[in-house]
Design a protein that fits this description.
This protein is mainly alpha-helical. The protein is built from 8 helices and 2 strands, in the order H-H-H-H-E-H-H-E-H-H. Helix 4 packs across helix 6.
Length: 267
């Protein structure tokens, strides 16, 4: 990296050197020197094309502190039950099993959405960059509060909450948003679909807990209400109307966005 930057400096300095002259006294035509931005951009792109494993290993190996866990990592997810007195649920072990499963899966999906909203918040590009940048931050903060509420409910019923990264990766039903810069139409489509999926999962969790734990079911209803609001705020920006088909072509390289229409509801 230092050598590359030094080379770029030499190239820039070279533009100020006197030009050689021909025998007739006329200066020779010097090739145009690349600007500083072009030089550094070429260096950065060249580095981006290299395998990242070595650089990652270098970063990981920069610290001599080794971390170990005093107990086994366990399964993903792991919800350990407390041996201390807790407020019991009607239905015994089967009830608590349903309750913990519903809460843990909701927590995982909320954390997944948290990560993806930040990824899109940072990398949003296009005409709607600024409003999406602000909206995604608002969603991130709301999702964080919901995740905290659900995690605390897990603790209240006597179970540990599992918010580990590997738990999210291995058990979330929401796929990763693409890496790199994200165009506005891409963000609108991805979150419209992701919020729809999570909202449907939370709705199923509400039904699974409404008899065994009404308190959990009520909390999940609050989460579902928030997710439905966020989903509406995304799809509204591509909502078809009688005066505007609003296919998103103006945001998507003159092509309609890939957003399937809602299936007709049963009578």
């Amino acid at each position: 990296m230092k050598n590359a930057r030094f080379l770029s400096a030499l190239l820039l300095v070279g533009t100020a050197l006197p030009l050689p002259v021909l025998a007739n006294g006329a200066p020779t035509a010097a090739p145009s020197a690349p600007s500083a931005m072009k030089v550094l951009s070429r260096i950065d792109l060249a580095q981006a094309d290299q395998p990242s494993a070595k650089s990652v290993d270098d970063v990981r190996g920069s610290s001599q502190t080794k971390t170990t866990s005093p107990q086994p990592v366990g399964a993903f997810p792991t919800n350990e039950m407390s041996g201390m007195p807790v407020i019991g649920l009607d239905g015994g072990a089967d009830a608590i099993k349903k309750d913990v499963a519903a809460l843990q899966q909701t927590l995982t999906e909320l954390q997944q959405l948290q990560l993806q909203t930040k990824q899109a918040h940072w990398n949003a590009s296009g005409t709607l960059y600024y409003p999406l940048h602000l909206l995604l931050q608002e969603h991130y903060e709301g999702l964080s509060k919901y995740a905290d509420t659900i995690a605390e409910r897990l603790l209240a019923v006597g179970a540990s909450a599992d918010g580990r990264a590997n738990t999210i990766v291995r058990t979330s039903g929401v796929p990763e948003i693409p890496g790199g810069f994200l165009d506005d139409a891409q963000i609108l489509v991805w979150f419209t679909n992701a919020y729809k999926r999570v909202g449907e999962e939370v709705n199923a969790a509400i039904k699974a807990t409404e008899q065994v734990d009404p308190t959990t079911s009520n909390l999940l209803q609050e989460v579902e209400h928030g997710i439905a609001k966020y989903q509406w705020q995304m799809r509204a920006q591509l909502q078809r109307t009688k005066t505007d088909p609003n296919t998103g072509w103006d945001l998507n390289d003159n092509k309609p966005v890939d957003l399937a229409p809602q299936a007709p509801s049963k009578p």
